[in-house]
Amino acid sequence: MDQDFSWLHLKPDHASRPLWISPEDGHIILEAFSPIAEQAQDFLTAISEPVSRPAFIHEYKLTSYSLYAAVSVGLQTEDIIEVPVPDSITSFIRERTLSYGKVKLVLKHNKYFVESSHPETLQLLLKDKVIREARLFSVQADSSIKSATFTTSKAPVRGNLVIPGTKEAEKKGDTITNKFGIPGGPTPHGASDAELFTSVVGVDADEIDEDDENVHAFEIHDAKIDDVKKRCNELEYPMLEEYDFRNDTVNANLDIDLKPATVIRPYQETSLSKMFGNGRARSGIIVLPCGAGKTLVGITAACTIKKSCLVLCTSSVSVMQWKQQFMQWSNVTDRQIAVFTADQKEKFAGDSGIVVSTYSMVANTHNRSHESKKMMEFLTSREWGFILLDEVHVVPAVMFRRVVTTIKAHSKLGLTATLVREDDKIADLNYMIGPKLYEANWMDLAAKGHIANVQCAEVWCPMTPEFYREYLREQSRKRMLLYCMNPNKFQACQFLVKYHEGRGDKVIVFSDNVYALEAYAKRLHKLYIHGGTSQVERMRILQWFQHSPEVNTIFLSKVGDTSIDLPEATCLIQISSHFGSRRQEAQRLGRILRAKRRNDEGFNAFFYSLVSKDTQEMYYSTKRQQFLIDQGYAFKVITHLDGLEDLPDLVYKTRDEQIELISSVLLANESEADLGSDIRAAEGDLAGTVTSKDFGPAGPSRFPTAHRTTGSLTALSGAQHMSYIEQNKSANKKLAREAAPRHKLFAKRDKEKAAAKKEAKEARARVQD
Ligand SMILES: Nc1ncnc2c1ncn2[C@@H]1O[C@H](COP(=O)(O)OP(=O)(O)OP(=O)(O)O)[C@@H](O)[C@H]1O
Q1: CA of 326 to the centre of ligand 1 (A)
Q2: Ligand 1 centroid to 292 CA: how many Å?
Q3: Among 53, 85, 284, 491, which is 20 to 30 Å from 508 by CA?
Q4: In terms of domains, do 483 and 537 share one?
Q5: What does 177-229 look like in DSSP terms, one character per residue?
Q6: Domain co-membership, 345 together with 455
Q7: What is the pLDDT, as a whole number, of residue 187?
């Protein structure tokens, strides 16, 4: 009862106080329905992490990272605590922001410097072993860079360290006159560029501060920048990375612009203004919902920086999409943009250009072909103005590390829709790329018609008694197969497909489990794509789905989770998924957010998750939905589908049929329950990070191409699952007619297993002969 506060009276002006900050843990609660809430929202997203943003009450949280991000986009401590906040929160903000923004990582003349206008901060950092050991005392031909030995004394060290281009350097008689240490010369962009820049990102370039005369720096080893960044983060001195691209006269300009017809949307502009707010390019991450147009944000950033740009994506399909989008939205010429994949190793012509590649092509160090090596030399020998990192949430930390340490780039932009990882590695992105610069509100974008409105539902399918009994007995891997193949789920899927096809929807059914995918698709006479489907067949099926009125439903394994652009799709049905992955759920939803018809009057897209009741799937499903719920989506629970029983050709209607189904599931090889082979296939293709193709002809055998071998009789005899099931049909029927199916079923199963083993042995012998 100590939680009952109903006896408290609201303050008379409560309506103008829509916000509450918990003094204990920095959580902020906002009444989103208040007329003044919108003003607060922008500020809150800048300084805190959005935890949950459903329709009425929003929750945010102040964290060290969120404050780091706030400082990075130019907010000062005083700006943040301008509003009255509890004392504990004021001191938290003060304490955190005190050290933020004081240290920068700067790339100059292909060398990295830790820079600060606070010498005592550099001193403090150099007391740390990791940082001290990363420091480089290079013998400079250029006398303007004078490394100093920091002492631990409090004595000011200003003057010991001078970096080229600062006024300090000028005073010392250096010839270097601009920030980048190159004598004279105008800024790379003329007035028209400045105007364009202003029009793109809404900043007046003239207001931008020029050099701080008190800048001090020390050089660090290329290979150690990642360690130093991490250490600085741990010491609460996260490094900002900003690129003064307008004054970079060392690196050649890239003459690209957005095409005049390109109009960027308001939220795209807002996200870019966070990146370019002070006229420099800040490194960091922009988070926009799937289908909201991250690609164009990246392209606009590249057109603003106008320096050589490296784009890294997760698959070779995405590489081609990025190139195509660059050609579509900007005036880049074919000569200026090159791709680096297993099949194509192009260089751009001229001094500057764009290269689009995959993380694995750049991060992989083994078994490179001669051509790849040459290409890597091309990439590593130059300074990049900008590196665009697509889908940053999926890339393993080691890959980032390699990319960051081998490629020298002045600024980095990470793009993602789902800044969540189940492995807690999200914090690493903060120091590897930079803080989150902007995160859009999904519901807001849907309300404005930029992404589709989606109705989400979880359909509870009770397990049939036979399936449930087996489920309780079986080991975990087979259990999954049992809850995927539950006849009630099968029927729900059939019903929903029929219902939505009838409404004129185009339906995608997702199943991670390839066994279930094939079984459903074949039984329901639908086309399907999984890791084992050839590229040609995939393309053909996707074309049909998009253009043929005959093909309104396709079944996709996880190869279709991301990067697949099917704006025709308006309904998704999920029959099996990757455990509790919030990211996968959101990425899948993303397939319909870009629905072409989203702006039709009253249009809704539909997203169903079919869940077998009272199984582990219920638990996973709840976990999976959390990200979307936090974005404001409400999942309705459907316990009964009206009219399902009346479906004329309802599958697995009789008990006999259901028992047949269970026997085939039980006979299926254990590995059928595995997601492994298709995950790899998916990674190699549309969604993942590594493809054997990416390694070229001499590629390692560590990542075999998509190939599902089951080791079962069916595989050995070359027969497909369904035909095998058919073969056993009559036997199972007979069995089902007999009483007490359970133990007899098992006896039968054992017998069949033995027979299968025998036949497999014989088949092997035949093959060996
Ligand atoms: N400003 C714009 N004007 C017109 N069309 C746009 C604009 N921005 C994006 N689009 C279109 O919206 C669609 C989705 O864009 P894009 O593929 O970049 O989304 P995404 O955010 O990368 O999605 P995902 O995370 O699913 O890959 C594309 O067809 C793109 O052409």
Answers
A1: 12
A2: 5
A3: 53
A4: yes
A5: -STTS--S---SS-HHHHHHHHHHH---GGG-----TT-EEEEE-GGGHHHHH
A6: no
A7: 33
> Whose alpha carbon is nearest atom 30 of ligand 1?
293
Positions in the chain short of pLDDT 50: 140-212, 676-749, 760, 763-769
User: Cα(first)–Cα(last) distance of the chain, in Å?
Assistant: 80
Which of 296, 445, 546 for mutating ligand 1's site (highest number of atoms within 8 Å of CB)? 296
| 481 shares a domain with 383 | no
- Helix and strand element counts for the chain (H, E): 29, 24
- Looking at residue 672, its pLDDT comes to 66
Q: Give the strand order in the sheet containing 19-21.
A: 19-21, 27-31, 57-61, 49-52
State the CB neighbour count (10 A cutoff) for residue 141. Answer: 6
Number of folded domains in the chain? 3
Strand 553-556 relative to strand 527-529, pairing: parallel
CA of 451 to the centre of ligand 1 (A): 10
Does the Cβ of 594 fall within 6 Å of ligand 1?
yes
Tokens at residue 696, please? 């070229």
Using CA positions, which residue lies closest to atom 12 of ligand 1? Answer: 293
Length of the chain: 769
- Substitution candidate for ligand 1 out of 285, 294, 508 with most atoms within 8 A of CB: 294
Whole-structure pTM value:
0.72
290 Cα to the center of ligand 1, angstroms: 8
Measured from the Cα of 268, ligand 1's closest atom is 1
Mark which of 99, 130, 161 sits at the end of a domain. 99
> What residue type is 507 in one-letter code?
V
Does the beta carbon of 294 lie inside 6 Å of ligand 1?
A: yes
Choose one of 79, 99, 119: the last residue of a domain: 99
Ligand 1 contact via 560 beta carbon (within 6 Å): no
Q: How far apart are CA 317 and CA 683, in angstroms?
A: 11
Domain assignment of residue 685, yes or no:
no
464 and 420 in a common domain? no
382 with 512, same domain? no
Asked if 413 and 533 sit in the same domain, the reply is: no
- CATH of residue 412: 3.40.50.300
Residue 294 C-alpha to ligand 1 middle, in angstroms? 6
Residues of the domain holding 324 = 253-440
Nearest CA to ligand 1 atom 15: 293
508 close to ligand 1 (CB < 6 Angstrom): no
- E strands within 361-489? 383-389, 408-416, 436-439, 454-461
Share of the chain above pLDDT 70, in %: 75
Rounded to 10 degrees, what is the CA torsion of 710, 485, 613, 593? 90
> From ligand 1's centre to the CA of 198, what distance in Å?
23
| Tokens 């938290």 belong to residue | 92
- Do the strands 354-358 and 216-220 form a parallel or antiparallel pair, or are they unpaired? unpaired
| Shortest-distance atom of ligand 1 to CA 264 | 1
Q: What is the DSSP letter of 11?
A: P
CA of 131 to the centre of ligand 1 (A): 41
Q: Beta strand 111-116 with 103-108: parallel, antiparallel or unpaired?
A: antiparallel
Is 52 a domain residue?
Answer: yes
Check if 265 has its Cβ closer than 6 Å to any atom of ligand 1: yes
Residues 32-56: tens digit of each pLDDT: 888 888 878 888 888 888 888 887 8
Asked if the structure places residue 139 within a domain, the reply is no
- Choose the residue to mutate in 286, 445, 594 for probing ligand 1, maximizing ligand atoms within 8 Å of C-beta: 594
Ligand 1 lined by 481 (C-beta under 6 Å):
no
In ligand 1, the atom with minimum distance to the C-alpha of 325 is 31
Determine, yes or no, domain membership for 744.
no
Position 237 scores a pLDDT of: 86
In this prediction, does ipTM exceed 0.85?
Answer: yes
Q: Within this chain, do residues 287 and 435 fall inside the same structural domain, yes or no?
A: yes
Q: Do 436 and 457 belong together in one domain?
A: no
Contact status, residue 712 vs residue 668, Cβ threshold 8 Å: yes
Report how far residue 736's alpha carbon sits from residue 758's, in angstroms, rounded to the nearest whole number.
Answer: 25
